[in-house]
Design goal:
The complex is a heterodimer of chains A (347) and B (546).
Chain A lengths: L2 E10 L2 E11 L4 E5 L6 H9 L6 E6 L2 E4 L12 E4 L11 H6 L7 H14 L15 H13 L5 E5 L7 H17 L4 E5 L2 H7 L2 E6 L2 E6 L1 H6 L4 H6 L4 E9 L2 E4 L2 E4 L11 E6 L4 E3 L6 E9 L3 E7 L5 E7 L9 E6 L5 E4 L3
Parallel strand pairs in A: 3-8, 3-9, 6-7, 7-8
Antiparallel strand pairs in A: 1-2, 1-4, 4-5, 9-10, 11-12, 11-14, 12-13, 14-20, 15-19, 16-17, 16-19, 17-18
Helix pairs in contact in A: 3-4, 5-6
Chain B lengths: L13 H25 L3 H43 E2 L3 H7 L8 H12 L4 H10 L11 H26 L3 H8 L4 H30 L2 H5 L5 H10 L4 H32 L11 E2 L2 H37 L2 H34 L3 H10 L7 H27 L12 H26 L2 H9 L5 H29 L2 H6 L7 H10 L7 H25 L1
Parallel strand pairs in B: 1-2
Classes of the chains: A alpha+beta (347), B mainly alpha (546).
C-alpha cells in the first residue's frame, strides 16, 4: 500500500479535529478527502505532510512509518510534495527557480534540466523567467504543481487546489491536473469541499464529517450507494422518501413498493427513509402517478422540478428542458432508481 | 456610478494654483539647491574641493555604510528573533525594542560621550580603582558615531523586518519544508530573501537618518556634510558654500531615495496573501535561548534603559539650579513651535489631500510628490535652501525701501522670523502629516460620499457627519507625529530661528558644544518623554494588527 493511515487522530485540546481516520491509497491513484469546512480534512492532510503531529494512530508511506505515537519524521524528510491552497510560491524567485527550489541535491545543470522538463509538463514552457506576480491564477497553480512534483515525491498532497480560481477555470484545470498527475503516475491526495472537483479528479473519495471518515469509496458508489445519511445528503442532490418495510428487501412508500439494495438488517414494520436522486424520478406523461410542480429551476439543458405528491411527499426530478411545465401543473412521473438505499428514519 | 471629477483637465485651474501655493515653502529649497548646483561659483568650489570635500565625503560615506551594516544586521536579527522565535521575555522585547525611537540620536550621543569619555564617570571610576584608563578606547571617533547612530536607528529596520517576517505567514516556510529543507535552511533561503525588500527599505530609512544627522556627529566632533554645511553658514558666513555643499549631499540623498522607492515597489509584489494564521514560533532551547535573551537585553539596555537612567540621574543633579524661568522659556518656545507647525502642516495636508481627491491632475500630483520629498532631505539642506532665497528677497525689499524712504527706512529681517522657521518645517515634515491624512481620506470611497449625499448630507454636513469622524484618527496621528518631530528637530531650528531664540533642542546643542553633557539632560528628558508618544501609538497599532 502506498499510503496507509490507521486510526489517525489529531486533537487540539479537547477538540477532535481528526478522529479514527483510516484509509489506504494505492500507487498511481488519486484520492480525495471531501467534506464541509471544519470537518478536519485539511488537518488530516497536514498530519500526512508532517506539519501537525498525530495524537494517536499511525501514518506510513511505502511501508515506512512517518508518524505514530512515538515516531515523527520531519516534513523535509518525508518525500511528500504539497500544493498549498494559496500556492505559497516564493515571490522572490521566478517560475523556473521556484520549480528548481526542491532540487537542491542535484547539480546545477540537472536542476535546470529538471525544472525545464517540469514546466513543459504543466504547459508553461515559455514562462521560465516570469515572477509569480506576473502569472495568472491558473498559471501560478501549475507552477505550484510543477514545484511539488519536481523532486519526484512519493506522494503529492493538494490542499483545496482550485478554491482561489474562478469557476470556469476550476473545472478545466481540475481535468488538466488529473491528466498531468496520471501521466507522471503520481500518487496524490487532495482535499476539497467541492464535490464537482472531487468527482473530476479522484479515483477514490472519502467523505469526512466532524473529524471522522463517513465513507471511502469510488465516486460512483458514493453517489449511488452512500453509506450514511450525511454522505447521501452532502454528495449530490436528492430527497428522503419515508416508508415502511413490509418484507425482506421491500418498502411500502407513498409512490408504491420499492425494492431496496443490499440485505440491510431491516425487519418488517421498520420505518425507513429511502434516498431518491433527481435522476431516479423520470417525467412520463403516460404515467398514472401524478405530481404537482411546486418549484422549478431552469438549468439550460434541463429543469430541476420540485414535485409534491398527493400524500405530501416531496420529490426532485431532472427533466429535459423542452418539457416546460408551470408551477401548479400536474405532471406524470415514473420512479426508476438503479439502487435504492434505505436509512433508519430520522426521528 | 459617476465619480466627481470635473471633465476639464486644464493645468492652471484655481485648484492647481492653490496646490502650488501651499507647496511653495517646500518647493523653494529644492529649487534653490537645483539652481545652485547648476551655477557653481568657481572660487567657492575650488576651496571646497581642496579643503572640505575630501574629508567630508570620506567621513559621510564611512558613517553611512557603517551604520547601514550595523543597524541593518541588528534590526534584522532582532526582528527575526521576536517574530519567529519563542524565548523568555519575547513579549516584552517585541515593543521594548522600539523604545529607542523615542531618544533622538543626538541625545544618545551626548549621553554616551558624557558617560564614556575620559572625564566621564566610567573612566574616572576605572582610574580610581586601577590607577589608569589609558587602555580605554577613544569615544569621540567615527566608530563611536557609527555605534551610537546604529543604536538610535536600528528600530526602523527592526520594525519593517519584523512585520515582513510576521506577514509572510508560515505557508512559505512549510512549502520549503515539503520541498526537503530543514527549518534553518528554510529561514536562509526563503524567510530572509522574502523579507529582503522590507529590510532594504528599512536600511534606506536608516541611511536617510544618518545622512540627515547633525546633532550626533556634532557631539562626536565627526565632520560630515551636515556639520560642514552648518559651519559654512555659521562660521564662514558663506551661504553659498553651504548651498554648494547641500547640493553635493543631495546626490547621496537621491541615491538612497531611489533605493527606498525601488524596494518598496518590489515589496508590494512580495506581500503574501496568507495572513490567516500566525506562524508557530520556533521554540528555542538551551544556549540559543540564552543568546536570544541576551541579544535583546543588551540592545535594549544600551539603546534605551541605561541612557535614559543616566539622563534622569544627571537631570536630578542639576534640577535645583536649572529648572527655572529660563528653562520654562525653552520649553514654552519648543511647544509653541511644535504646536504651530502641527497646525500649519495638518491644515496644509488636509487641503492638499482634498484637492487631490476632488480632482487628481498629473501636475498637482507631481507638485505634491516633490513637496513631500522633504522627509528624505537633511534639515541643514532645507534650512539653507530656504534661507538663501529669503535673504535675497529681504535684500531686494530692503533696497527698494531705502530708495523710497531714504535712510529712515527700517531694517528688514525676514530671515529671522518665525515664518521662515515654519516654512522650513513645512518643507521637512509635510510628508509626515500628508501621508496619514491622504491614506485616511483614500479609505473614504466615493461610494461612501454618494451614499451620504443620497441620504441628504451634502457639503459641510457631509464633511462634519461622515468625513471628520472617519478621519479623526488620521488627523490626530498626523498632528502628533509632526508635533514630536518638531520638538526633536535640531538643525533647522538652529539655522533659521530668530536671533537669541532658545528651544529645548537648541539648548541641548549649546550645552553639548560646550561639553557640558550633564546640563543637557534636563531639556533632553522633556524631548524623550514627548518622543515616547508616537512609540506608544506605534506599538498599539502593531498589537491591533497582530
Amino acid at each position: 500500500m502506498w499510503l496507509d493511515l490507521q486510526d489517525v487522530a489529531r486533537y487540539f485540546g479537547t477538540r477532535k479535529a481528526v478522529d479514527g481516520l483510516s484509509l489506504r491509497l494505492e500507487r498511481g491513484s488519486i484520492g480525495c478527502l471531501l467534506g464541509p469546512s471544519g470537518c478536519g480534512k485539511t488537518t488530516a492532510l497536514r498530519c500526512i505532510a508532517g506539519f501537525e503531529p498525530v495524537t494517536a494512530g499511525s501514518i506510513s508511506a511505502h511501508g515506512r512509518i512517518l508518524a505514530d505515537a512515538d515516531r515523527f519524521v520531519p516534513p523535509e524528510l518525508r518525500r511528500i510534495g504539497m500544493v498549498f491552497q494559496d500556492y505559497a510560491l516564493f515571490p522572490h524567485l521566478n517560475a523556473a527557480d521556484n520549480v528548481a527550489f526542491g532540487l537542491h541535491r542535484l547539480s546545477a545543470s540537472d536542476r535546470v534540466r529538471r525544472a525545464t522538463q517540469m514546466l513543459e509538463a504543466v504547459g508553461l514552457a515559455d514562462y521560465h523567467t516570469h515572477y509569480p506576480h506576473q502569472l495568472s491564477g491558473g498559471q501560478q497553480q501549475r507552477v505550484a504543481l510543477a514545484r511539488a512534483l519536481a523532486p519526484e515525491p512519493e506522494l503529492i498532497l493538494l490542499d483545496e487546489p482550485f478554491s482561489s480560481l474562478d469557476v470556469e477555470l476550476r473545472e478545466r484545470l481540475s481535468i488538466e491536473v488529473r491528466e498531468i498527475l496520471k501521466s507522471l503516475n503520481a500518487t496524490a491526495l487532495l482535499v476539497t469541499h467541492d464535490q464537482q472537483e472531487a468527482f473530476a479528479m479522484a479515483d477514490a473519495i472519502g467523505v469526512m464529517k466532524d473529524g471522522r471518515l463517513e465513507q471511502w469509496d469510488t465516486p460512483y458508489e458514493l453517489y449511488h450507494r452512500p453509506a450514511t445519511r450525511f454522505v447521501a445528503d452532502f454528495v449530490g442532490q436528492g430527497v428522503f422518501l419515508g416508508g415502511q418495510v413490509i418484507e425482506h428487501g421491500a418498502v411500502q412508500t407513498e409512490v408504491g413498493v420499492m425494492r431496496i439494495d443490499g440485505n440491510g438488517a431491516w425487519k418488517a414494520g421498520d420505518r425507513v427513509d429511502l434516498l431518491l436522486r433527481p435522476d431516479d424520478v423520470i417525467h412520463d406523461d403516460a404515467s398514472t402517478l401524478r405530481a404537482e410542480v411546486c418549484q422549478r429551476a431552469f438549468r439550460g439543458a434541463e429543469f430541476l422540478y420540485t414535485l409534491r405528491m398527493s400524500g405530501g411527499a416531496r420529490l426532485l426530478s431532472l427533466v429535459p428542458s423542452h418539457h416546460n411545465h408551470q408551477i401548479g401543473e400536474m405532471i406524470g412521473i415514473r420512479i426508476e432508481p438503479d439502487h435504492v438505499v434505505a436509512f433508519a428514519r430520522d426521528e | 456610478m459617476t465619480t466627481h471629477r470635473s471633465p476639464d483637465g486644464s493645468r492652471f485651474s484655481s485648484s492647481t494654483v492653490f496646490v502650488v501655493a501651499v507647496c511653495l515653502p517646500a518647493l523653494i529649497p529644492l529649487a534653490a539647491i537645483v539652481v545652485a548646483a547648476f551655477s557653481p561659483e568657481t572660487e567657492i568650489w575650488s576651496h571646497l574641493a581642496r579643503y572640505i570635500l575630501p574629508e567630508v565625503i570620506r567621513n559621510t560615506l564611512l558613517l553611512t555604510v557603517g551604520v547601514a551594516l550595523l543597524a541593518g544586521s541588528l534590526g534584522t536579527a532582532l526582528g527575526w528573533l521576536t517574530a519567529m522565535c519563542e524565548f523568555p521575555g519575547r513579549r516584552f522585547f517585541e515593543w521594548a525594542l522600539l523604545l529607542p525611537l523615542a531618544i533622538p540620536a543626538y541625545v544618545l550621543a551626548f549621553v554616551a560621550v558624557g558617560f564614556l569619555d575620559f572625564s566621564g564617570p566610567l573612566q574616572t571610576w576605572i582610574r580610581a580603582v586601577t590607577g589608569t584608563s589609558n587602555w580605554f578606547p577613544a569615544i569621540r571617533t567615527g566608530g563611536g558615531a557609527v555605534i551610537v547612530l546604529s543604536l538610535a536607528t536600528y528600530p526602523y529596520v527592526y520594525l519593517l523586518a519584523r512585520s515582513a517576517f510576521l506577514t509572510q505567514g508560515r505557508r512559505a516556510l512549510e512549502a520549503a519544508q515539503s520541498l526537503g529543507l530543514g527549518r534553518a535552511a528554510a529561514t536562509w533561503r526563503v524567510a530572509l530573501p522574502m523579507a529582503r525588500p522590507w529590510i532594504a527599505a528599512g536600511i534606506a530609512l536608516v541611511c536617510m537618518e544618518t545622512l540627515a544627522d547633525f546633532g550626533a556627529v556634532s557631539v562626536f566632533n565627526y565632520n560630515t556634510f551636515t556639520t560642514a554645511i552648518y559651519r559654512a553658514w555659521a562660521g564662514m558666513f558663506s551661504v553659498n558654500a553651504a548651498l554648494e555643499l547641500a547640493g553635493v549631499l543631495m546626490v547621496f540623498v537621491l541615491i538612497v531615495l531611489a533605493v527606498e522607492r525601488k524596494s518598496r515597489a518590489v515589496a508590494r509584489f512580495s506581500s503574501s496573501r496568507d495572513t490567516s494564521r500566525d506562524a508557530p514560533r520556533m521554540q528555542l532551547h538551551g544556549p540559543s535561548r540564552v543568546v536570544a535573551l541576551a541579544a535583546c537585553l543588551i540592545v535594549f539596555l544600551l539603546a534605551f534603559a541605561l541612557p535614559f537612567a543616566q539622563l534622569l540621574l544627571w537631570m536630578a543633579k542639576h534640577m535645583g539650579r536649572d529648572l527655572d524661568a529660563r528653562y520654562f522659556g525653552f520649553a514654552a518656545r519648543s511647544l509653541l513651535l511644535a504646536g504651530s507647525a502641527a497646525i500649519v502642516i495638518v491644515s496644509a495636508s488636509v487641503l492638499l489631500a482634498y484637492v487631490l481627491r476632488r480632482k487628481e491632475t498629473r501636475f498637482a500630483h507631481i507638485v505634491i510628490r516633490a513637496a513631500t520629498m522633504g522627509y528624505a532631505i537633511p534639515g541643514t539642506v532645507l534650512a539653507i535652501g530656504i534661507l538663501v532665497p529669503v535673504i535675497s528677497l529681504n535684500n531686494v525689499l530692503q533696497s527698494a525701501l531705502r530708495s523710497w524712504l531714504g535712510d529712515s527706512a527700517p531694517t528688514l529681517m525676514l530671515h529671522g522670523t518665525l515664518l521662515t522657521v515654519l516654512a522650513a518645517y513645512l518643507a521637512r515634515f509635510l510628508a509626515v502629516g500628508f501621508n496619514p491624512i491622504e491614506s485616511g481620506l483614500q479609505r473614504i470611497t466615493h461610494n461612501i460620499d454618494e451614499a451620504a449625499i443620497g441620504l441628504g448630507s451634502v457639503g459641510r454636513q457631509l464633511v462634519r457627519r461622515v468625513h471628520l469622524p472617519l478621519l479623526k484618527t488620521s488627523l490626530t496621528s498626523a498632528a502628533t507625529l509632526v508635533f514630536v518631530d518638531v520638538m526633536k528637530e535640531m538643525p533647522i531650528t538652529l539655522i533659521t530661528r530668530p536671533v537669541g531664540w532658545e528651544t529645548l533642542a537648541t539648548r541641548i546643542f549649546e550645552m553639548t558644544s560646550e561639553g557640558d553633557w550633564e546640563r543637557a539632560a534636563l531639556p533632553a528628558v522633556a524631548i524623550v518623554l514627548a518622543g515616547l508618544i508616537p512609540v506608544a501609538l506605534l506599538t498599539r497599532r502593531g498589537s491591533n494588527v497582530a
